[in-house]
Amino acid sequence: MTQTAAASLAEQVHDHVAVARDVVRSYGAGENEVTALRGVSAAFPRGRFTAIMGPSGSGKSTFLHCMAGLDTVTSGSIMIGDVDITRLSRTRLTRLRRDRLGFVFQSFNLLPMLTAEENIRLTGRLGNRRADREWFDTIVDSLGLRDRLAHRPSELSGGQQQRVAVARALLTRPEVLFADEPTGNLDSRSGAEVLGFLRRAVDAYRQTVIMVTHDPAAAAHADRVLFLADGLIVHELPAPTIDGVHAVMRRMEG
Fold first, then answer.
1. DSSP string, 27-76
2. Domains of the chain, residue spans
3. CA distances from residue 3 to 6, 10, 106, 221 in whole angstroms, order as listed
4. What is the CATH number of domain 48-59+94-253?
5. Closest CA to 212 of 233, 227, 192, 193
6. What are the average pLDDT values for consecutive 10-residue runs of the chain, which has 254 residues?
7. Stated pTM of the model
8. What is the DSSP secondary structure assignment for residue 130, as one 8-state letter?
9. SS3 of 209, please?
């Protein structure tokens, strides 16, 4: 790396909560090797909402999972704050994910035997950290879960279950919230409610959100959209609209 590139990366690490540099991810070996990411670099500003889009097989979910430390990289670096997570042991990486990151997935991943409140508080308890009551109340009331706290997942709608998952992810005030198709299992109304809260979390609490989605309407809630194709970022769209996202996707397909 040149001195200029090193200085640029140092500046990005200072100003951004997460930075990927020349990330390559390959699976298999020899004739069976498949490269999902081909040297992806991106910086994610603190307190901003970034959506990641691309056609099936573009590498978007692989990129998110590598950024979140859920998958390993073949080469390159990923910084969360001032920590290169690609250099951490498995134990230290697990601790970093638990203490500094939040996750929301398409499947809600709630424990069926626990109530909504117990599911929300679970991550903090696993890390021996108790969220202050005021923050808990803020999240619960913002997500409209006050009268559902004693219910188990089987007694909640899909939208309510995903709101519980979002509350759980935000309770520990993560540096980054990673969301992988968070509205994929929801109807349009429930999906819009979840996306609206993620948007408010960014605007009101300076939460950093990185979200993979295939839905232009979901991407339009973000501050910008990164488009991947064949394992590379091929376009960035600031201040996205539904029509703007559709236009980029059509150009990529044509």
1. ES-GGG-EEEEEEEEEEEETT-EEEEE-STTSSHHHHHHHHTTSS--SEE
2. 48-59+94-253
3. 5, 10, 41, 37
4. 3.40.50.300
5. 227
6. 49 76 95 95 97 95 97 98 96 93 92 96 72 88 94 96 94 94 91 93 96 97 98 98 96 85
7. 0.90
8. P
9. strand
